[in-house]
Amino acid sequence: MGTLYEDIVAYGGEVFGEEHMETLRECVQCGKCTGGCPSGRNTALRTRKLFQMALLDLREEIFNAPELWFCSTCFTCYERCPKGVKTTDIIRIIRNLAAKEGHMSVPHRMIGVYVLKTGHAVPIGPDQMKLREAVGLESQPPTTQHPKNKEQLEQVRTIFRTTNYDAMIDFDWETMNLRGMKKGGKK
Amino acid sequence: MTDDDLGLTYAYFLGCITPNRYPGIEAATKRIFKEFGIETKEMVGASCCPAPGVFGSFDMHTWLPVAARNLSIAEEMGLEIYVTCNGCYGSLQEADHLLKEHPKLKERTNKVLNEFGREYKGTTKVNHSIVILHDIIGLDKLKERITKPMNDVNVAVHYGCHFLKPREVRGHGSSETPYILEDLVKVTGAKEVEYKDKLMCCGAGGGNRTADTVQSLEWTRQKLVNAIMAGCDCMVHPCAFCHLQLDRGQAEMNKAFGTNFNFPILYATQFLGLAMGLSQTECGLDIQTTTMPEKLLK
């Protein structure tokens, strides 16, 4: 583990390229990101502050800040940054690092459970199947959740196993739920 | 074959919200495309895109191969893709862009896909349904099919975020002065009305809705108030996920904030569908939270 900046460049660099992540260093704290932020007007998220904290290596403070998760990834600041800082992608990578170190809420981890069970973050249920019929569609779309496509669903599960996503959210393959989770989503 | 028969076929990437919550969006889009000779083929075994702000926020290294797997299904079909959700557009187009930009990343991603005999080749293209309407079918052909003009209807256009941004991936020009949705609304005879913070996010993305639903609804509430204050009759948009936040969100905010919202929310093809003479049942507008006023149905 290096400094937070080094980790952002290393982990994010593998996907976006290191140069993309290194734009963080160009931040001059002008605040244009925060000025146009739809979250900032409603929540404690201050994108400018987040980037200063990242450059000051305040790792634990950032990872424990609830507002880290109040960015909707709208890319407004990404388009407006006068220094070309790749803001939204940097925020996503900071979140990736936070999640890897166990800072991930139960509702966020549950989205992974739905995908591991059905292949969908928002699965279909019997009520929605009726809605499909009401507009003249097949009751179930031919996606990974369709009983005919078990093999395809297994491919998605294989990806999650290969990248250790299942371990990251503490997924229990026996119960097909988060480990220690009781019915109804209560821990 | 009429002049309107384009003779095109696309693979429809359904995603999650469209088929599993708002099938009216799926039905209206397929019906309109068929009218113009655009055939839709289903992508058998496609999964969640997966959501760019959600899985992209949790682990980009998982997000990417899942998106690449979906792209490989369309590649096998030999077809270009269309989507009806900005989240799906965001994920699939961004993944395609990254894999084409970075050969090593493509190699690493294919190692994961090879485990079950798949490969991402980079031979498909990800299209948004409203771009097909605007650029492939075109405004002139659309105009000819408007049988129920929306002459006295004031429309608030809502873009969502990942249709326009980041510009370097999306390629639809300025994210501050867009025109595609405006054109599609105006072709029906409706008036596109400017309103405060028109380009503001719906509030749902990036895991924000899941992190704190009520907080995310406050963004939505502001957006709706701004549209109502400007005298709009309804909101028209291009994103299934925004639809969930804007439509079902109204029931949620009425409960959370004690408000009484019932502001009509329509996906672009639902709005065009009504103007082309489809019934609200055919567009699935009678099986959602917000209800359609007579003005939109006459």
Notable traits:
heterodimer; A: about 190 residues; mainly alpha; 2 domains; two-stranded antiparallel sheet; 11 helices; 2 strands; about 0% strand; B: Glutathione S-transferase Yfyf (Class Pi), Chain A, domain 2; Rossmann fold; four-stranded parallel sheet; 14 helices; globular
Please, could you describe this protein's structure?
Chain A has helices at 4-16, 18-22, 32-35, 47-55, 59-63, 76-80, 87-100, 106-118, 126-134, 150-162, 165-168; strands at 171-172, 177-178. Chain A folds into 2 domains: 4-100, no CATH class; 106-178, no CATH class. With 187 residues, chain A is mostly helical. Chain A is globular. Chain B is an alpha/beta fold and 298 residues long. Chain B has 2 domains: 8-127, Up-down Bundle (Glutathione S-transferase Yfyf (Class Pi), Chain A, domain 2); 139-297, 3-Layer(aba) Sandwich (Rossmann fold), CATH 3.40.50. Chain B has 14 helices and 8 strands. Chain B has helices at residues 17-20, 23-35, 55-58, 60-77, 86-101, 103-114, 129-144, 167-170, 180-186, 208-211, 213-229, 240-257, 268-275, 294-297, and strands at residues 8-13, 38-42, 81-83, 126-128, 154-157, 191-192, 234-237, 265-267. In chain B, the strands form 2 sheets. Chain B has a 4-stranded parallel sheet. A 4-stranded parallel sheet of chain B has the order 6-5-7-8, with helices on both faces. In chain B, helix 2 packs across helix 13, helix 4 crosses helix 5 (86-101) and helix 4 (60-77) crosses helix 6 (103-114). The longest helix of chain B is centred in the first third of the chain and has 18 residues, at 60-77. The mean pLDDT of chain B is 97. Classes of the chains: A mainly alpha (187), B alpha/beta (298). At the A-B interface, helix 1, helix 6, helix 7, helix 8 and helix 9 of A face helix 1, helix 2, helix 3, helix 4 and helix 6 of B.
